[in-house]
Amino acid sequence: MNKAKQQTYSTIVSANPYKGDYYVGTFNTISKTSSPAFSKEQYAVSFLNTKGFISTLIGISKNIPEDDVYDALENKVYEELALDMAIEYHIKYIEAINRSSEGDRFFHVFVVDPLNLEQDFSPSVEKLKYIDQIVPVPLLLKSLYVKGLVESTDVHCYIYFQENDAFFCIYNEQEFIYAKSLKFSLKQMHERFCELLGEQIDLNSFETMIADEGLNTSNPEYQKNLIKLFGEIFLHISDVMTYAKRAYDIKKFDEIFIGTGAGKVLGLDEYAQTYLGIKTASFDFDFGFNTNGQRVDQIHQLMHLYGRLEANERYECNFTIFHRPPPFAKRDSGKLILVTAASLAAALLYPGVYWGLSYVEEFHHAVLTKEYEQTHIEKTTREQTVNLKLANKNAAQTRLDEQKSAYKQKQDTLVKVHEKKVDYPMKAKILADFTRSFNQYRVQLKTIGYTEDLNNTKVFTFGLTSSSTQDITALLKHLTDAKRNQYTFNLELISYDEEQKSYLSELKAVIK
After folding, report:
1. Which of 27, 104, 4 lies closest to 58 in space, CA to CA?
2. Which of 35, 63, 84, 432 has its CA 20 to 30 A from that of 173?
3. At what angle do helices 220-247 and 268-276 cross, to 10 degrees?
4. For domain 427-511, is the CATH number 3.30.530.20?
5. Using one digit for the tens of pLDDT, what is the confidence trace for 52-66?
6. What architecture is domain 1-149+286-325?
7. Nearest-angstrom CA–CA distance, 283 and 261
8. Which fold has domain 151-284?
9. Residues 255-310: tens digit of each pLDDT
């Protein structure tokens, strides 16, 4: 925000490009605006969610000069992340101060696809005309330490569920360590809750329910399925924390801050503390802004806090490509208009200036002609150099394509091995699951069969018997409702056995 410090802005506007909402701040007041507009006195801040960037930790030698750090990091990022060389990714970095070793420096590198920037932020730019700062969302949390909202130097985890994303972030000794996108955004929570509930409710109703009633909702069926939902969520979070501890040599997490974009969820921090066994607090900080009693998303408040920090107090990691226009006098068009106006005024005041201008232009034309001849020679030489490099590039591309083809064959082999080892269904677990359903509906299992054809279609065949056809049809309806996402069921005939006085049927379950 170097430009921000060269002049004072009367307002700050924060933009959430993924949700399309905006908040304007003046002094210590923040309010939502439904019609944001361009203003040259306004400083615009936005963020990248954790799905919008790739982050990685890169180490380089301390002997590399400061001027060459970016080039060294760029080369290693393209190599280690196997990025497409044809795409010019936007790459920014911050130094991992506490990670440096005797011979190496380490940097947290953030990589963004330029197409994502254009697609995600174009609606905001249409309204605001420019965005001064676009910051990866985990780096906004640095503001909490600068302003003393979190004072300790412990290892802190931040978990925040937004409508279109959810992030997990670690800070240690008040410095950024790690960030990851979680697979349970508020929309994904809503979809999974409706799946568990077996009925559809709209997203706004779901967000209102968890914000107003929390995990102890008055509807017993809702509460039961909310507990199931958050059990799955925290199982996923526990796996992420286990990986982070191992990858970043973290002995323990001292405290977790957890919250949602829908508002504070009553009972969520207690549930997290019980499940994870770590001290937990609500991600609901008092930033000191006057919101006139309205609830303002914590991310918007963090952006306003970040926009008020000095450049040396925050991480400088700005991905904006939507810069504000320079002052009129510094634009090429402005310079042309000013020069033209001055020339016209001089011409009107002093007619003789026309003759002088004519001689100046002739001299200027002669100089440009000579300059053009030299430039043309340079152009021809550079074209020859470029053509040679293009030929070398094409040869290198041919070798790269061959390597990619070999890599693809190895990758396909590994995928098949992975599918056999990981995705191959565990028959004993499946049979035990079906047996519980058979017993529940008083249907006896007589025979079991399993087949797998060349198309990798896996089929279980169950020979069933029951004293009542209603039990068999009730079982089929239960299985179809409960397991429709896992199996396709087929039961063509129910026959009656006179000798055994029972009904016989054959149920086929095809794994999807």
Report:
1. 104
2. 63
3. 50
4. no
5. 999 999 999 999 999
6. 2-Layer Sandwich (3.30)
7. 10
8. Nucleotidyltransferase; domain 5 (3.30.420)
9. 999 999 999 999 999 999 999 999 999 999 999 999 998 999 999 999 999 999 99
